[in-house]
């Protein structure tokens, strides 16, 4: 990463905090630490970090609850770093507003890549109307999609779905988040509707829909549009 970040690490295991502090400070970042949820919320208020790395199993507030409370007033990027690897845990954290979810044990390279992706979304100017990844170009203002120089025709629903993924490029969007944003809350349980439209998009955008390059599946959780590294 080229720019120094102010990173708040929230974990009740001192060994994890020590490892993350050493790893992230070696990249020029300023590190703050908290070992419980309430302290984390207070430090977000008082220290104004750029990024929060948050464990779920805290001694007072669960990490999901910390995320919900922060999302009531803050858009600070939140990466969950947890030993919990069940789909339900991931879905709950992402639905609560977390930006990404990484399971322990993790590789340093993967963590740094996830941080780059999350922070790149933060510095992208609001109102950005064009997204490009590989040979895929999405013009939100003109409702146009171009793949390898060829215009692609999408239905309005397909375009809205692709638009939502593009606006959250690199971020896992849960099934519920996508359905609510594209179809509305009345369709929250219509997973089949989402799967059908994702399949249609992949047929139009992927050279091999069974091995997608652009619209990636987070098994049991949701989908994300690949982000440039």
UniProtKB/TrEMBL annotation:
It holds the Pfam family Response_reg. It comes from Leptolinea tardivitalis. This is Fis family transcriptional regulator. One of its GO terms (biological process) is positive regulation of DNA-templated transcription. It comes from the Bacteria. The modification 4-aspartylphosphate is found at residue 55. It is found in: Cytoplasm. InterPro entries: CheY-like_superfamily (IPR011006), OmpR/PhoB-type_DNA-bd (IPR001867), Sig_transdc_resp-reg_receiver (IPR001789), WalR-like (IPR039420), WH-like_DNA-bd_sf (IPR036388).
């Amino acid at each position: 990463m080229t720019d120094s970040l102010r990173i708040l690490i929230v974990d009740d295991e001192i060994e994890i905090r020590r490892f993350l502090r050493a790893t992230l400070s070696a990249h020029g970042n300023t590190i703050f630490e908290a070992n419980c949820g309430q302290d984390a919320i207070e430090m977000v208020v008082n220290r104004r970090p750029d990024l929060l790395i948050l464990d779920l199993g805290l001694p007072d507030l669960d990490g999901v609850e910390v995320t919900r409370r922060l999302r009531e007033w803050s858009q600070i990027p939140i990466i969950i770093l947890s030993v919990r690897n069940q789909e339900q845990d991931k879905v709950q954290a992402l639905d609560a507003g977390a930006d990404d979810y990484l399971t322990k044990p993790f590789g340093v390279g993967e963590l740094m890549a996830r941080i780059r992706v999350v922070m790149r979304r933060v510095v992208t100017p609001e109102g950005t109307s064009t997204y490009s990844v590989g040979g895929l170009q999405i013009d939100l203002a003109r409702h146009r999609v171009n793949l390898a120089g060829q215009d692609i025709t999408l239905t309005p629903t397909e375009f809205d779905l692709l638009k939502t993924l593009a606006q959250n490029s690199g971020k896992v969007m849960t099934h519920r988040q996508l359905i609510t944003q594209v179809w509305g809350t009345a369709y929250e349980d219509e997973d089949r509707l989402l799967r059908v439209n994702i399949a249609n998009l992949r047929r139009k955008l992927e050279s091999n829909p069974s091995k997608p390059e652009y619209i990636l599946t987070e098994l049991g959780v949701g989908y994300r549009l690949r982000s440039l590294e």
